[in-house]
Write a structure and sequence with these properties.
The chain is α+β, with helices and mostly antiparallel strands. Helices cover about 35% and strands about 15% of the residues. α1 crosses α2.
């Protein structure tokens, strides 16, 4: 499988560098880099995709063992939080990521397995641990609903 529109591994695309310089785009670009960094630490080579292609994921991750995964990373922007609109932070509204999830699914090239990383960008819930957190329950319910509908 040849990746058309990819940049060489370990070379950031110009469009991503540009997004890092813009306040309203920084958060999403930073999250993409964080996801790529985690996968690189696991031994995956990262192949960034050219933003000019119509349907594409953020990057392809290739493992030396032969696994190839299309990766999409989305970060929820919230007013009042770093790099969000300058406004007082409203009370947490829940994960509210179904739109991000659907958008990420639409970027799947459908020619290889894919992984979707979603940053809910919510404040910590210190009284709750792991799967008990309210946003985790919300995401689980959303996925159950969507997967049941796909049947």
């Amino acid at each position: 499988m040849t990746c058309t529109g990819c940049h060489k591994a370990n070379h950031l695309p110009r469009a991503l560098k540009t997004r890092l310089k813009h306040r309203d785009q920084f958060q999403g670009a930073r999250y993409e880099l964080a996801v790529a960094g985690c996968l690189a630490r696991l031994g995956f080579a990262i192949e960034w995709h050219d933003a000019k292609t119509a349907k594409h994921c953020e990057f392809t991750a290739r493992h030396p063992g032969g696994d190839v995964v299309a990766v999409e990373a989305k970060s929820r922007h919230r007013p009042g939080l770093p790099h969000g609109a300058a406004a007082p932070a409203p009370a947490p509204q829940g994960a509210n990521i179904e739109g991000l999830y659907r958008e990420a699914l639409s970027q799947n090239p459908n020619d290889r397995p894919s992984a979707i990383f979603l940053d809910v960008n919510l404040p910590p819930e210190p009284a709750l641990h792991g799967l008990q957190k309210s946003w985790v329950q919300e995401v689980r319910a959303m996925l159950d609903k969507l997967w049941t509908a796909q049947g």
